[in-house]
Each structure stands twice: as structure tokens, then as C-alpha cells.
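Sequence only, no structure available. Ideas?
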Amino acid sequence: MSLIINAVAFLIVIGILVTVHEFGHFWVARRCGVGVERFSIGFGRVVLRRFGRDGVEYALSAIPLGGYVKMVDEREGSVPEDQLHRAFNRKPLWQRNAVIVAGPAFNFIFAILVFWGLFLLGDTVMRPVLDDVPPQTPAAEAGFQSGDEIRRVGSKEVSGWSEVMREVLAQGAGNASLPVTVRTAEGSERTRQLDVAAIGPAGQQEDPMQALGWRPQRPPLPAAIRQVLPDTPAARAGLEAGDRLEAIGGQSIDQWQGLVDGIEAHRGQSMRITLVRDGERRQLAVAVPDEGKIGVAPAAPEPDDLAPYQRRIEYGPIAALGRGLTETWDYLRLTVTIAAKIVTGDASTRNISGPVSIAEYAGTSATYGIKPFLNLLGTISISLGLINLFPVPVLDGGHLLFNTCEWVMGRPLSEHAQSVGTQIGLALIVMLMALALYNDLLRVMGVG
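Reply:
I predicted one. C-alpha cells follow.
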């Protein structure tokens, strides 16, 4: 069932974002007087088609990993004399650039509108308050203490844990230290220099916050199981959703943290669990793997228990639009920063995800509700728009590169030069996709 959910969610995400992207090209092309022959969602063989009153063929094609807008263009085939004024290649350079940029621009605009809608609905964030700071960690050495609430990372104000993690990765990866301002439990503000070298290249650490010694204060979770993942140690041991845990290895527990501590203490060993199911007390033995994951999820905390750990933020229409713009810019900045650091070696290539990871994220966010799903749509839309602006032939940025060469030289690049550039671009895209699929495979196998 999870595979079906992931596949459907993936198709919905890609379908929406590709439609937005290609509609940007289509809409601006029509405004510039460029003839459009086909608007296709997907590549390859056309599965469904319909001809509009405007004469455009609207198509759904077999390979749902992109799309295209086929324009009237002498480079793509012969154009009737009476249609030459509508040919893309005969339009002024600025109009051609406008058509090319429109696809990524519509992705960014779409993200802004998505975030605007989400902020208009209001936002509930987890307050970035630190739990006990483990000794001999960068956080402990910098003087961070339990109860510190993170207010600013570098020069960026933050209000929730997601912003904290984003800013640490954006500003910290590859740097020696990072100033972090906190409000202490006593109410005073302090700025501390955090040694961020421990996180290494961004994306290399599975949990950069844990590597730094930052652990968020969390609401107490009941010692009850909400979900047992299939084909995991917990499932093989016979644990089921709804089980209430009473003891681990003979030690009584009443909160989920007791199970977490028990798993940590039994890595690579068998762990005896006492539980209650349907009013009956049972004992099961669970083999804990070396990585310490047995495949269970906790029941949700009570709403009253959550309140002290959350912050509710309300926005009016104008303020929500401003936050939408800021959120889009922050994600764009983070993506550019990580991409640049991948090139310089300050970020791991493990940051590159492929269609399998996107499908998993889409499926998971869809099961959590419409707001997480929309948030994922916005973030992927930003990534899609940015990637298409990379100066790689085949992508929109590659076409802009060719047009820049034409502007500098005063004439278009030769067909041979464009053909060679396109072949190089295709090779780069194939290698990038291969790396992304390789990373997906490692994630699925639980390696690294």
C-alpha cells in the first residue's frame, strides 16, 4: 500500500510542477507571438491528445518525468512562409530569453503562492528549545545549556527547529564556527560561538544537530506504539500497533523515551519487552540491529502536553505574502549554497536525491495531511526552477547560455557547436541522474 501511495503522490507532484513549469513557457511564448504546436506533460509516445480551439495539441505522454512545449521553429523543421513571423528562432533575443526564463519563474511564483497560502492558514512550529546538552560536544564546549531557546543563527532570526536546521546547513557547512544567539532559561540573551566543523560536509551526517550536541526538548510521548513498519525487527518479533509498553529488560517504563534508551542499551543484542495488548500482558524478544532502529513509531502526545513546546504564528494576507517571499528566498538560498558546496567539496553528494526519494517524501507528506504535502510541493518547485537555470545545455539555463554567446558574438552559435554542447549537456544530466538513483538505492538499502 505504501508503494502505491508513494507512486500516486509522486505522479501528482511531478504532474503539477511540470504543468506549472511548461505553462510558464507556453504563456509567455503566446504573449510574444510565438506559435505553439504542442503542449505535452511527459515525454515519449503520446497517450492522450486533444486539439484546442487555438490549434494547439494538448498531450499526455508516456514517460511522466518532465514535459515540453513544441514551438514553431525553423531549427525543428520547415516552416510555411506565412508562419515565419511566429517562429521562435526569428524573435528578438530578449523575447526568446523571456520565454526560456518563464518556466523557472513560474515555479518560483508557484512556490511563493503555496507558502503564502500556508502562512495565511497560520503556522505551528516547534520552539527551538534545547534539551540536556551531552558533554564533550561542540554545543557543550560553546556553553549551551538545557532550556536555551535559539533565537538567531548567524544573522538570521529563527522561530522553529526547521529554520534552525536549515540555517545551520546553509551557513555552517564548510565553516569553522557560527555565532548563535539564545535566550537562556533565566530570560537573558547570549551569543555563543558554535564549532560547526563536527557536521562535516553538509549531508554527510545523518543528524547534524545530534553531531553538534543539540537535542530539542520534546513533549512526553506515551509508551504506546502507533505504527510498526513491515519487514523490520519489531514486525518480526510480533509487535503490533496499539501495544502499550510496560518494561524493557525488566525495567519499568511509562514514556517513549524509555524504549529509546532501551534500544540504545541493547544495540546488537536481544531486548525483552513487556507489553499490554487487549488487556493481556505479554513478553516479546526483539533483536536490536547495530544501527539501533527496530521499525516502530510512537503514539501522538496529548494536545495539552504539546502546547508548551509549540509556537502558533498567525499572519494577515500581506504579512503572509511577505513570509511566502522570504520562505521561497530562504529555500532558494539554501539550495544554491548546498549546490555550490557540493562543487567545492564542502557538501556531500548524498544531498542529491532522485525520483525514488521524491516519491517517498511525497507519499509520507501526503499521509500527514494537506499542509505537509503543499510544503513539499513548494520546496520541490523551487528546486525544479533552480535546476533548470543551471547553465547546462538541454536545460533552460543552457539555452540562456547559447543566447548569451549569440549576444556577445553578434550571431548565433553554429549548429555544430550547439550540437556538441547538447551532447555534453545530455551526458551531464545522465551522470547526475545516475548519481541520484545511486543515492536513492543507498537510502533504500539503509547504507551510509
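The longest strand covers residues 36-51.
Hope that gets you unstuck.
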